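## tool: complex_structure
## caller: assistant
## args:
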Amino acid sequence: MRRRSEPLFTLGFFVVVTSLFPLGLGPEPELLRRIAPGVLWVAALLASMLALGRLFGADYEDGTLEQIALAPAPLMLAVGAKIVAHWLVSGLPLVLVSPLLALQYGLPGDVIAHLMLSLLIGTPVLSLIGAIAAALTIGVRGAGVLVALLALPLYVPALVFGAGAVDARLAGLSAAPNLALLGACLALAVLFAPLATAAAIRIALE
Amino acid sequence: MSNGVVHWFRYASPQTFYPLAGRLLPWFALLAALSGAAGLWIAFFVAPTDAQQGESYRIIFVHVPVSWMSMFLYLVMAGWAGLGLAFNTRLSAMMAHAIAPTGAMFAFLSLWTGALWGRPTWGAYWVWDARLTSELVLFFLYLGYMALHAAVDDPRRGDRAAAVLALVGAINVPIIYFSVQWWNTLHQGASVSLTRAPSMAATMLAGMLLMAFAFWMYSIAAVLARVRAIMLEREAHMQWTHELQEAAP
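## result:
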């Protein structure tokens, strides 16, 4: 992160996109409540993806990335730290602001709690998987669009389980199975994503 | 060059693989044409008309083998990509690169024939069925692979970057498949399903397997042809391509 305002861009995008849906679909509370989990999750996914360009781009251009790769500390560790930082500025704010947006969509209290929980588990998955796509497109022309094409299909399980958990809660079912699967995705991503990202960075730098 | 390891590694270099691929290619193409013709003959003239779906079900002979191939080719592509990444062999990466367009074509054909089949049987070109959706995501994965490869200027770097993507995708494909399947059952319970077909007649199965074999052979032939072109393009500066050019009449 180079400018203090940058985390606000992601957050602003998230808020604006979720506010556009009622304008496009009409203000019926029943409909809005029904689509809220999907809308909020898709918006979180897009917002998190938009922030990916900043993950390695600036560091690659000024040569910092090369220095990190040459450092004695394992590259995977540095990559992991960068992903955590990325999540702190682009994922966590979404989790924190989501109750407000969920209120606008008329979700009841315990569903909002589950939405926050699902985003809390799910947004790190998005950052981890997105980091692979960001590392693969380092220094590539048209990286912004390409990142979307690479990352979005891989986001599908997180979206299904995350929105599914909230949906289930909204329908009066238990959200636990979906949340558990989302947690499994997170565990897998924590294991593999830094590895793949580090490999991709080495390829980009050679 | 008779037994085992030596024999196989001999063909791991483009220089020796190029003529081998050229010799094998017509045979695979011939097998594809023959088994394809036989499969289509069974599909149109031998297989009985379906009691429920009438004649429209006959697209199954293209649709199902094509879907199999699209999924299988992704794994083969990821396998070659992984080999190329692990051993840094030129040919493996070229093979992965050559498989991608064929796989994407099969994925697209699977969606297209599925839509044509869905219209008369389900009444809709597209339903958000688990299999359709995961096939669509698979198609996107192919597109992503090819787009990434095309976007990187240096083909060697493109090979390696795309290989990482193919491997990540290969881990993800089963997760995507199951997540989508579960998503669907969560939303609408018992929905349209491709597995409801009653016990399949033996002739239908034979026709389908023949068609699957035909698409197999076609894939091998197409990939060999494409990998030959890639080898010539990438190694245009090498000694052996010049010799090849001089030897040609």
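## assistant note: The interface with chain A takes residues 85, 137, 140-141, 143-144, 147-148, 151-152, 157, 160-161, 164-165, 167-169, 171-172, 175-176, 179-180, 182-183, 186-187 of chain B (CB under 8 Å). Chain B has one domain: 22-48+57-192+212-240. Handing back to user.
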